[in-house]
Each structure stands twice: as C-alpha cells, then as structure tokens.
Specification:
The protein is about 45% helix and about 15% strand. It is an alpha+beta fold. Among the domains are: about 1-185, no CATH class; about 190-215 and about 220-255, no CATH class; about 340-460, no CATH class; about 460-570, Glucose Oxidase, domain 1; about 810-940, ATP-grasp fold, B domain (D-amino Acid Aminotransferase, Chain A, domain 1, 2-Layer Sandwich), CATH 3.30.470. It has an 8-stranded mixed β-sheet. Strands 21-20-19-18-24-25 form a 6-stranded antiparallel β-sheet. It catalyses: pyruvate + ATP + H2O = phosphoenolpyruvate + AMP + phosphate + 2 H(+).
C-alpha cells in the first residue's frame, strides 16, 4: 500500500513538473496563430466562463454573490490564455476590471501590457472584433461601467507621480485615447478602421480609403455617399450597413469641436494662471471661424498644457488637462486640411504651429522643440534667401522624422511581438501616425520641399512617386540593380551585392549591397553608414509614405543615384540614358581595389604587449591601428585612455601554425590552400557565384576550427600574468572588452569599421579565453569576407591582433567626426551619441549634433532607441529601457568634446606614424561627465563617388543668396 501511494505521489509530481515546464516554455508563433483563429470562431473567444471577483479576493459563480459589496463580474480567461501570459508575456482579450494597476503599467517590460491593450483595440477595429469576433456578444464578459471606473482609478494612480509623467508623457497621453475612463472614443481611428474594412471587402473603394487615411477632409463624406449610391447594385446588405456606419462616423469626426466640452475639462482645474489662460482662449476660440486662427489658438493652448501640467497638483485635473490636450490635437488635425496657404509666408506659419502642436502632444520632447523652435519661427522680414529657406526645410523635415521616431520607439517592440502571429499588427504604427498632427505636418513640409525644388531646380526624381520633398540623400554614389522593399525587422535578411534595398530602418550588420534607402537613417556615423560611404554606396532617407508608394516597383531593375548635395534619382532600367548605362561599363573596367600592406609586418613578436609600449608607428607591424593608435593616445592623453593588453599579429600566426584537427595541414596552410584553389577555379573560368560559395564554405570550416583552437600553454600563462600586472586585477575578476584589430582596417581608402567581432564585458576566465578565439575567427565570417572582397586585392593576408581593455560602464557613448559630414566643412564637428555602452556605431537612432565653428550646436537628431546597454561588474550586458525627456549630452560635455577635437586636430597630424592629416573618426564615452577615449582612426570617404562628373551633373548650382519674397504664391 505504501509502495502504491508512493508511486502515485511520484506520478503526480512528475505530471505537475512536466506541466509547469510546458507552461514555462515559450509557445511558438504558429501555435498562437492557430489559437487566435479558434478564438475568432468561439462564442466565448479567449474566455472560459463568468465569475464574481470579490473585494476579499474570493471568486464565486455568477449566480452567487460576494460576501460583501463591491464585487466585479467579468469573464475568466481560458487556461491557455493565462499560460501564454506567463510563458510569452502576451496578454490577449485583456479585461481591465480587477487588474492590478502596477501589473498593467508593466514597467519591468517597458509597459508592454498597456501597449498590447492598445494594439489589440486597433486589431479589433480593423478585423471585425479580432479574437472577440463572436465573443463580442458574450453577455457579462466585460462590463463597460466597470472598465470605465477602473480606467479612472488607473489614471488617478498613474498621474500622481511627477516622474512618470515626465518620462512617459507621450505614452500616457496616447493611453488616454484608448483606455475607457469617461465614455469617449477614438473617432479618428474608428473612421480609418471602418474604411479599411470596406476596402478589404470591396477593392474598388481603395482610392477613397487612401484619401481618408492620408488627407481626410469633410468633403470626403459626400464622396463616400456618392460611391455607395453609384455601386449600390453591387453591394451586399452587410456592406451597405458598413457604409452607413462609416458615413455616421465621418459626420461625427468632422463635427466642429464642442467648445462646451473644452470648458467642462477646464472647470475641473485648480484656480491658477493656467486655468485663467485656457478659459480665456476657449472664449476666443468660440468666436473664431477660419482655420488659421483656430489652429494657432488650439496650438497655444496645447503647448501651455504641456509646459504647465506638473504645476497642477490635483490628479483629476491632470486627467482633464490631458483629455483637453487630446481634443485640441484633434481640432488642429481637422482644421489643417481647411487651412490651404496661398503663399510662402502662410505655409511657414502653418508648419510652425503644426510643429508646436506636435511638441505639445509629445511626439517631440520639449527640450528638442526648444532647440529648433527659433529656427522654424516664421521670419519677420519680407524676403528670405534660398539657403535660409533650405535650412527651414531641413529642420522641419527633422521634426517629422523625430515625431514618427517617437511612435516607432514606443510601439515597435510590441508590434514586432504581435506581428509574429498576426500580420495585421504591422499597420498599427502607421495608423497611429496618420491619426496624429504628424500627418498634416508631413504634408505641409512636403509642400515646402516641392516649392524650394521649383525655385532652385533641385528636384528629386524617384520613380515618379508623390511627396518627393521628404527624400534626402545621405551618401553619394550610383547603382544599378533589382529594387527590394523590406518591411519590419531587417536583421535576419540575406542581402545580395547586386540589389538596391529600401528599409524601414537599416540593419545593424549589413553585408555589401548596391544601394540603400531607409525611412530611419540610424545615424550618419554608424558602422553601416561609414562602410557605405567608403564604397560609394548610394544611401538616402525616405518617408513612410514614400516606402509605401515604392512597393509597387519592387522587383524591377532600376538605376539609383545620390548626388554630393543630396539630390536623389531613381528610374526604371528602360529609362536610363546612354550616359547612365556607360557608368557601369566604366566601373567594371576600372574597379578600385587596394592591397593590404604586409611588407613590414612583424610576426616575430610573440609576447603580449603593454598598451603603453606601442604607438602609431607600430600599426600594421605589431598590431592593427586600433591598438597602435590607442597606445599613441595613451601617451598623448593618459587620463582619458584605460590601460590595456595587446595580443600582436605574431601570436595569432603562431597559433595558426598548429596542425588543424582532421586536416593534415596547419590552419594557415588550409587558409592559403582555399585562396589558391579559388584562384585556380577563376583561371578555369568557373562562375563567380560557385567560387564564392566554395570560399565561404571553406572559411566557415576554418572559422569554426579557430573557435576551438588550443591556446598554447606559454601564451595562457603570460596572459594571466600580464592581466594581473598591467590591468591590476586577476583574470576572472575584472570585466574586459576584447576587440578585433586587423591589418585591413583604417587603410588609406578603406576603414573596415565594425566588420569584425568585439566581445563585450567578459569577466569569467573561460569566457575571456573563448572570446579571444572568437575574435580571431571573426575576420572569416561571410559579412567580413564580402566587404573585404569588394575592396582588397589580397584578402588572404588579413591578420587579426587583439586589444584587451577594462570595461568602462559609461553613461553614454558615441562617435566624433572632426568634420561636418553633411556640409563637408573641416571646421565643424559631427557627433552621434547613444545612452550606455557601444552607442551610435550599430545603426542606432542616436542623438546627433553639428558643432559649428561659430560655437552653435545644431541638433540634427535626438535619440530614439528604446533600450541601451549597461556593463555590470558580473559581466555581459544589462538592457535598460530609455526615456527621451532629457538630452544625452549636456553643455559641459559638448564643451569638452570641442576642446578635445581641437587637441586631436593639432596633435595627430604631427605625430610620428600617423599618416592621416584628418579628418578623424573617434569613439568615446562619458562616465560621470568624465571623457573616456576608446579609438581613433582616419575618416575615409569614397573619392570616386564624390568626384563623379555624373553626380555633379544631377545637382544644379543652387543660388544660395537668391532672395525669395514671402508673398510668393505657392
């Protein structure tokens, strides 16, 4: 009996253990997708039954009652829905009543649960209820009054904390549009969703849907009515009812904002100067009838709310202020289509007030608006120069990019999560942008761009699409190839060197391509951008709307060029001129490739070096330029550079002389045999793809073997000894970076930036040992190989040295270029910084500045990366969520950078071993406002692309001092 009981107990434990393991294991997207399809057909959707949730924590059946008053009746989730919350942190069919406020705010997961609620609300609106398709009629599952009461309680809790409001103003204000708390609904989103549902069922409605989504105006109501009448014979009864619902929603949307509703919100405020000002302006608004003064008044009110919100201490009044702010943005959005500027002065006024409304709404942070507001304020003079007007355009374009970047940074993670099992989720961000003041702002900025193009003859010509004023060239160059449009995450995409890619954002690690254009440029000094600049790969920034329009051209062969001044041309292959066709025959005959110098390399140095003992003259001899130049900098700026160990070329070569397991040759012989065989294949005329495939397969074998190579005993012993003596702590107790430093980097015509591996913040002794092997192996990755093959004549002679330096857990880090990249001015400085370690070099949307010789720091772009890396003492990286309410760099940091850049320009050209006279590419960071220097290299640009006569020909001379009257008609 005891045995049977014990067996049963063990069996029960085993079942429980396996069950808990299954619950903890992540559910695959395919399985989630199947569940969602099942929920759509289930009359209870994601719910299993109804219960009373009582104040004492008990849960009782629906026909019973709680022991005390205050219970909430709602549905319970199906067991697998609860399990999905635990395994995948995915919350389906969320019911707010009885949900814990802190759990719903979900700060530990960057507020994912709140954002999922907003995203699901969108999915329900465009997909007939989505997972509640039939459960919409499950009576008692969700109680509207309980949801609203919970919403009021939630916002009362949320807005009681000033820091939360400062850090998450945009998200909180957006949440007020979606979470029930006073009976309001998001009519703009409802209008777009209903039009989308109709067009999906009846494609002939697509043109009107595009109009409603892109530039809605009250005249659209009659257009929809006329469409319904014209197509009445072809419409089902269900479609006719959907048209009626859309028309009703559109009438509600285009109703003038009820001023009395605004007064009700203001009445809730505490007596204050803000309340008095808002009341006065509401009285003024009631008397105004034309769109221009209504927009300027509403914009001023919204901006006052943004600036004065925290001065209001009554939480219910804070809710009222944010609700009022949302209503004011809605007013501006509606009136914007009615304000049709007739001349340049009017247009500049309109863009200014739309931009200020975007700042009031949180799409642009207050500090960012203050940086640019003076530059976009309507001029007082009667005329403006072309140069000054172009500066207006650049700043206004930036505002649109920053605003859309805020939406993406806030919601992209949760959209990526849901799009894995629900493709419709990808439309959420676009829907959010189109329902905001960013839509009319972008339209007005595009109109200004078109006006400037007409005045100067500086026209983009990109496949005949609309709104070309948003297009802006970054890197000069020209390309010919198939056009590929990439949506979503590009990091796992396999790219081809003969294709032109359009990305929503550039990938962090990109292999060579013919050309690129991105909605988000990342930053001008990321590794991808620098490599593109080296090779003359044309690169431009486009808008979301441009990307959508260019989808129809995907798969076509196109010619693509970006001029030195940013003019962009893209045309179908059949429309190329003879001059454009000739560019590619010339390129084929005059391929610019260079040879890695190996004459002076010293492989006899097989001992580890102290960073202090090498300098720039050792570059390419003992080590690569990273270590040699950093050693030089350690001598020049000892307090700004950490201590370090250098593992020279000779130690790498010494290890590769060992026999490669199972091959009967050394690692080094295997490498050289690979290149020799490839050369024989080439001489036999075998196809280039076959040769490349062979080489890549062989290099993969070599790379994996190097990762497992046995370190020589004397090297391991010396490594531990010098780690202790030079870095000051035993190996295994101090976190370090292990950086690849090859002889192919920082050549006169090729930088090689970011091609090889850096091991971040390794502490454990075995991780450091493995990190050394991994970094040695990294030059043989496919990406590194393909970039080298583009430029190097002898890629087999690539030797990696290693730089091992202590980790500095910097507060922020980035790149300094001692030149104005966009302007070409050597008296200026370009900066790009991101929070945490490894900032700005991986294609991140970084905080970027142009430091002018006049002393002005021009903000080119604020940071929009939602996460950043910290370097804990325990090793590895810790990811932290970012907020954007404060700039990364402070004024003292910028002063320090200016002074440091001046020192570099004076000292570096006169330093023995430094062959470059500048400009320089510098990696640095700040810890507690102290500047730390990590790397310096020459800044290399592609001279062929810069000097191309064709590229000059597509950029007409701009009459920069030409005066344009502000009264000029558009």
């Amino acid at each position: 009996m005891m045995t049977i009981t014990l067996k049963r107990a063990l069996l029960f434990f085993l079942v429980f253990f396996l069950s808990s393991q299954l619950h903890a294991q992540k559910v695959e997207n395919g399985s989630i997708q199947e569940r969602i399809e099942a929920y759509k057909q289930d009359v209870r959707g994601p719910y299993k039954d109804l219960r009373w949730f009582c104040p004492d924590g008990s849960v009782v059946p629906p026909k019973e009652r709680c022991p005390e008053r205050g219970g909430k009746q709602r549905a319970r989730y199906k067991d697998e829905v609860v399990a999905l919350q635990k395994s995948n942190h995915i919350f389906l069919g969320q019911i707010l009543a009885t949900t814990d406020h802190q759990s719903f705010w979900d700060s530990g997961h960057n507020h994912s649960r709140l954002k999922q609620y907003q995203l699901e609300k969108y999915l329900r609106s465009i997909d007939n209820g989505w997972i509640l398709r039939k459960a919409q009629y499950y009576r008692g599952a969700i109680q509207a009054e309980d949801e609203q009461a919970w919403g009021r309680e939630f916002f009362t809790w949320l807005l009681s904390d000033d820091e939360r409001i400062q850090q998450h103003y945009f998200l909180i204000r957006q949440a007020l549009k979606d979470l029930p708390h006073k009976g309001d609904s998001n009519v703009a989103q409802q209008m777009r969703s209903q039009s989308q549902v109709i067009s999906d069922q009846y494609p002939a409605f697509m043109d009107l849907r595009v109009k409603i989504h892109g530039q809605p105006e009250s005249s659209d109501i009659q257009d929809v009515i006329s469409f319904k009448q014209k197509h009445a014979d072809k419409l089902s009864a269900k479609l006719k009812a959907q048209f009626d619902e859309l028309i009703s929603t559109m009438r509600e949307f285009f109703q003038p904002v009820d001023v009395n509703l605004l007064r009700k919100e203001v009445a809730l405020l505490s007596p204050s100067q803000l309340k008095a000002s808002l009341s006065s302006q509401i009285d003024k608004l009631e008397q105004l009838t034309s769109p221009r003064p209504r927009i300027t008044t509403a914009s001023s009110m919204a901006f006052e709310i943004r600036e004065g919100l925290l001065e209001e201490k009554k939480v219910s009044a804070r809710i009222a202020l944010l609700d009022l702010s949302n209503k004011l943005e809605e007013l501006v959005y509606k009136e914007a289509t009615s304000w049709q500027p007739k001349n340049l002065e009017n247009l500049l006024h309109k863009t200014y007030y739309l931009g200020r409304t975007a700042a009031a709404a949180g799409y642009i942070e207050l500090w960012e608006w203050r940086q640019v507001s003076d530059h976009v304020a309507p001029p007082a003079a009667e005329t403006i120069t072309v140069n000054n007007l172009s500066n207006y355009l650049q700043t206004l374009r930036s505002q649109v990019e920053w605003g859309t970047g805020t939406v993406k940074a806030t919601y992209n993670e949760v959209v990526s999560l849901f799009s894995g099992f629900e493709p419709l989720a990808t439309g959420f961000i676009d829907d959010r942008i189109r329902s905001s003041v960013l839509l009319p702002l972008g339209e007005s900025v595009g109109r200004l761009g078109d006006f400037i193009a007409q005045q100067t003859g500086l026209n983009n010509s990109m496949m005949g699409i609309a709104n070309q004023g948003h297009i802006r060239g970054l890197n000069p160059g020209f390309a010919f190839g198939e056009l590929v449009v990439v949506e979503g995450n590009p990091d796992d995409l396999e790219v081809a060197p003969d294709k032109i890619y359009l990305f929503e954002r550039p990938p962090a690690d990109m292999k060579p391509v013919a050309g690129i254009a991105t909605v988000s440029e990342g930053n001008l000094v990321s590794h991808v951008q620098l490599l593109a600049r080296n090779l003359g790969i044309p690169n431009a920034v486009i808008s979301n709307t441009n990307l959508e329009e260019l989808k129809s051209h995907a798969g076509k062969m196109v010619f693509y060029a970006v001029s030195n001044r940013g003019t962009v041309v893209m045309k179908p292959a059949e429309k190329m001129t003879e001059e454009e066709r000739a560019l590619f025959t010339i390129t084929a005959r005059n391929e610019e490739r260079i040879r890695v110098p190996i004459d002076s390399i010293r492989l006899d140095q097989t001992s580890i070096l102290n960073l202090r003992d090498i300098n720039a003259r050792d570059s390419g001899k003992l080590s690569g330029p990273k270590a040699a130049n950093l050693g030089q900098l350690k001598q020049m700026f000892p307090d700004k550079v950490v201590e370090g160990l250098v593992v020279p070329f000779g130690i790498f070569r010494q290890h590769l002389e060992q026999e490669m397991p199972g091959r009967n040759v050394s690692y080094w012989q295997f490498l050289n045999n690979t290149y020799a065989t490839a050369e024989q294949m080439r001489s036999r005329g075998e196809p280039a793809p076959e040769i490349e495939k062979y080489q890549l397969n062989q290099l993969e074998v070599l790379r994996e073997a190097i990762k497992k190579i046995e370190l020589l005993p004397h090297f391991r012993k010396e490594l531990e000894e010098k780690f202790q003596s030079i870095l000051g702590q035993p190996m295994g107790e101090l976190p370090v970076f292990i950086r690849s430093d090859t002889n192919m980097e920082d050549l006169k015509e090729f930088t090689g930036a970011g091609l090889n591996l850096t091991v971040f913040n390794a502490v454990d002794k075995q991780k450091i040992i493995q990190g050394i092997k991994d970094v040695w192996a990294s030059p043989y990755t496919e990406r590194s190989y393909k970039w080298r093959q583009q430029y190097l004549l002898n890629p087999e002679n690539v030797y990696p040295s290693l730089l091992i330096i202590p980790s500095v857990d910097v507060d922020y880090s980035g790149v300094l270029i001692t030149k104005g990249i966009g302007t070409g001015n050597n008296d200026e400085i370009t900066l790009a910084f991101s929070r945490g370690a490894g900032g700005a070099v991986d294609g991140q949307v970084a905080e970027s500045y142009l430091l002018k010789s006049s002393g002005e720091a021009v903000l080119l772009s604020p940071a929009r990366e939602p996460y950043y890396n910290r370097l804990p003492l325990t090793g590895g990286t810790a990811r932290q969520a970012a907020t954007f309410e404060q700039p990364i760099l402070n004024e003292q940091n910028i002063r320090d950078i200016r002074a440091f850049s001046d020192s570099i320009k004076k000292i570096m050209p006169n330093t023995p071993g430094i062959e470059s006279e500048g400009p320089y590419d510098v990696e640095l960071g700040f810890k507690d406002n102290k500047l730390w220097l990590f790397q310096i290299r020459p800044f290399v640009e592609n001279k062929r692309a810069q000097g191309s006569a064709y590229l000059e020909s597509i950029t007409p001379d701009i009459p920069g001092n030409k005066q344009i009257k502000l009264s000029t008609s558009l």
